[in-house]
Amino acid sequence: MKNNGKRMLRLFSVALAVILTAVACFGCSGGSGTGEKTSEPAAQDDYVLRVGTLAGPTGMGMAKLMNDTKEGGSMAGRYNITLYSSPDEIRAALLSGSLDVAALPVNLAAVVNAKTEGKYKVAAVNTLGVLYVLEAGNTVNSVANLAGKKLMATGQASTPEYILNYILEKNGLEGVEVEYRTEHSELATLLISGKATLGMLPEPMVTNALSKNADLRIALDLTKEWKKVSSGEAVQGCISVSDDVIGQHKAVLDRFLDDYKASVEFVNGNIPEAAQMIADAGIVAAAPVAEKAIPNCNIVFIEGSGMVSILNEFYSVLFAANPASVGGSMPDETLYYTR
User: Fold this and answer.
1) 149, 140 Cβ separation under 8 angstroms
2) Residue 201 DSSP symbol
């Protein structure tokens, strides 16, 4: 009996050792119950996005992001950001396919989408209304006061003209003479020198003009005037993204949108520091001007259904004014990238 007991004990020990060895081997394999190995983690996508932005309010929300991507910054090597001085330059870069992402006027985003047969989509609204009427004097305190007057302006055949015309039309004004100048800086100089006494300009040119001529004042905020005659928003800037990048580097693109949103929040919440970044990046010439202008620039980050709703209504106004302003046909849901 004693020998049988010892034999049973030895057999039990051997069986236990076999079981423990099998369990250990199972754990080492990292397998499942079928003995399969776990898959390796997906490789990180190190694609560097080619980003373009504009001087002025359309690019101001990008300032923190541009600062962080400088050599030694927390996002160095993540994005390659180029500052353009005019919408025509950024349009050419998009049509040539040399940019993956761009901050640009909303009407231009629709035109580029049409010309590239959907290659670039709108991912976010980044700038609402930035237009103001300046006056040297005190005769204009409502849109009605523009009747019979000569108003100098910039932005002919683009969103500023269509915003102004829509406001005038909805207020029943037909006798306003509008004289357009090509460059914002040209009109600002005329207002500063006193050669013009009534003009429509965007920020930050507004702040610049006010700082150099004490006789000038903001007579009308056209963003507020738009809201009086429309249920929607006056929209001037957006983020356009490449459809190829959506398909091939979606995670990188979505990370950029998150980083850009954080940059917008920083600019709006840390105005003095952001103003210096804006000046350092060349988006606005001087930090003091940028600091005063930021609150009037309506810098936002609106994506998803909110973006679609706002832009659909605004594009319908542009399309009614001039179909060519949005690419010849009313944009539909294929224009948008919603994640």
Assistant:
1) yes
2) E
Residues in the chain: 339
Q: Are strands 101-105 and 177-181 parallel, antiparallel or unpaired?
A: unpaired
Distance between CA atoms of 100 and 27, rounded to whole angstroms? 45
CA distance 141 to 159: 23
d(CA 38, CA 30) in angstroms, rounded, equals 6
Q: What tens digit of pLDDT does each residue of 104-148 get?
A: 999 999 999 999 999 999 999 999 999 999 999 999 999 999 999
Q: Do domains 49-129+236-335 and 137-229 have the same CATH topology?
A: yes
- Top CATH class of 137-229 equals alpha beta
Return the percentage of the chain with pLDDT > 90, whole number.
86
Q: Which residues lie closer than 8 Å to 109 by C-beta, 6 or more apart?
A: 120, 122, 238, 240, 335
What pairing do the DSSP bridges indicate for beta strands 198-202 and 79-84? unpaired
Q: What is the C-alpha separation between 56 and 36, in angstroms, rounded?
A: 57
Domain 49-129+236-335 has CATH 3.40.190.10: yes
Q: Is the peptide bond before 323 cis (omega within 30 degrees of 0)?
A: no
Tens digits of per-residue pLDDT, 167-210?
999 999 988 999 999 999 999 999 999 999 999 999 999 999 99
φ, ψ at 286 (rounded to 5°): -130, 140
Asked whether the beta carbons of 205 and 188 are under 8 A apart, the reply is yes
What separation in angstroms does the CA of 192 have from each of 222, 298, 309? 20, 24, 39
Q: Where are the domains of the chain?
A: 49-129+236-335, 137-229
Is the pTM higher than 0.90? no
Q: DSSP per residue over 268-312, as a string? A: HH-HHHHHHHHHHHTSSS-HHHHHHHGGGS-EEEE-HHHHHHHHH
